[in-house]
Amino acid sequence: MSDTATHATHMAPPHEARASTADWIAVAAGGLGALMATLDISITNSALPQIQGEIGATGTEGTWISTGYLMSEIVMIPLAAWLTRVFGVRNFLLANSALFVAFSMMCGWSNSLGMMIAGRIGQGFTGGAMIPTGQTIIRTRLPLSQLPVGMTVFGLIVLLGPLLGPVVGGWLAENIGWKWCFFINLPVSIALVTLLVVGLKPDRPHWEAFLKADWPGIAGLAIGLSSLTVVLEEGQRERWFESQMIVTLTGVSLAGMALIALSQFTAKRPILRLSLMRNPRYASVIIIVTAVGAGIYGISYLLPQFLSLVAGYNALQSGSIMLFSGLPAFLMMPILPRLLGKVDFRMLVVSGLLLFTLSCMLDISLTAQSVGHDFMASQLIRGAAQVLAMMPLNQASMAAVAREDSADAAGLYNMARNLGGSMGLAIIGTLIERRETFHAAVLREAVSANSLIGQERIATSAAGWYERTGDMAYSQMRALGQFAEQIQQQAMVMTFSETFWLLGIALALCVPLALLLKKPQPGATGSSAGH
User: Fold this and answer.
1) Other C-beta atoms lying within 10 Å of the C-beta of residue 195
2) Are the C-beta atoms of 389 and 338 separated by less than 8 Å?
3) End-to-end distance of the chain based on CA atoms, in angstroms?
4) pLDDT (tens digit, 9 = 90+) per residue, 456-498?
5) What is the pTM of this model?
6) How far apart are the C-alpha atoms of 244 and 241, rounded to whole Å?
7) Which whole-number Å values give the CA distances from 318 to 164, 301, 498, in the listed order?
8) Could you check whether 1-213 and 275-432+496-519 share the same CATH topology?
9) What 3-state DSSP class applies to 112?
10) Which residues, at least 6 apart from 421, have a Cβ–Cβ distance to it below 8 Å?
11) Structural fold of domain 1-213
């Protein structure tokens, strides 16, 4: 039996009918760690202007505050299973909690961009480990009968963390100070360490797993995924392959992927278990979660952008609209475990994907007068859709693999969700820029100087300005400028509508894959149940 299998057996005795108090404390620790990690992904978004002003960073440089976190997090997520085997779950999480606080304090005390980015990279490494490890704790500490409760709570945390981040960050920045976006992690980490000490038994390191590690795969993972994340996050701002940096990082990313592919054939136990993808049930989960990840991250980008650029909302106002999608999660919490235990996973995921598609289609009829309350219905439907799609996917990913493979499966699952988000944002960013330019050009051509409607609009506007200023040349200039802004705004609205439509179609195309999902059978154990 492998170290992982032995460890899993030790953590969840096969004859244990119900989880003990210590098991639930361990589960709470895993959930709290995941909440802290997911919250910190987006907590700086609302406070970014204040942070940039304090450390003297430009708008473009400030994007690295978020990119640094995502870059390191996506590398750590698939490494977590191996590091857990090496150091033991308790030792690994205790060390990560302490380091996460240290890097958070570093960010809060930063007075330069370099120091801030270094702190955020450290936060990403240590925070990224907490998400798959928390999922593994739930899978291995809870019996099958109680697994829906644990996975429901964990799934809600992963969904709500990114939604709460901008609101919490915006409130802290406005009322206390941006430094508290990072200092708030100190009391949370103290609580986390306490739960870990009480809920997890001491375990010894397995240094042979370190010495026999898949080092080519680890190197490929580190350079490949980190470079790919930077390419996806920064590509649009750098004009893609017009930038030497993007070209170089693309080459580095391909080299890293080649090392990962090589390790699949040469390593006894590859660091990234791509062999799990040979299981069609697990592969379907990964494809769906990648698409849903792109949808969730895409909406979290699209909606605030629309509210800011078109409706004139500030970050805190946009965040409050985003929170509407979290309301169904709270309302459904009492019935979710029962749904997951009794209803076919495939029906839940299909329902979630179709509702997600519907929510996107409700937003394709946007106008320049659309404001926050116009998104209320779509946000509520979207919130229910995310719950119905993501909750079963969490469990289906675990149900599709053997128990001893749960740590590797959790790492690949969470990596796919984040990578899907990065790819979605990259595609959406490129689409918005190019389609907005296209629509603006078409509109300008349609309302050229020969357009009677255009001339009438400009003349009316100029007359209004002339009444206020008495300067005809100035009034005509303001009228032309106002008309150009209206054209740009309409082009922007048309582009956002198209993007929502394409997101909806992409999610709808995943529906057939949901038919391949596998539901855990009550009372089944071991690999026979897919566990």
Assistant:
1) 21
2) no
3) 15
4) 666 666 666 666 666 666 666 666 666 667 777 788 888 888 8
5) 0.71
6) 7
7) 12, 11, 21
8) yes
9) coil
10) 293, 294, 296, 297, 298
11) Growth Hormone; Chain: A; (1.20.1250)
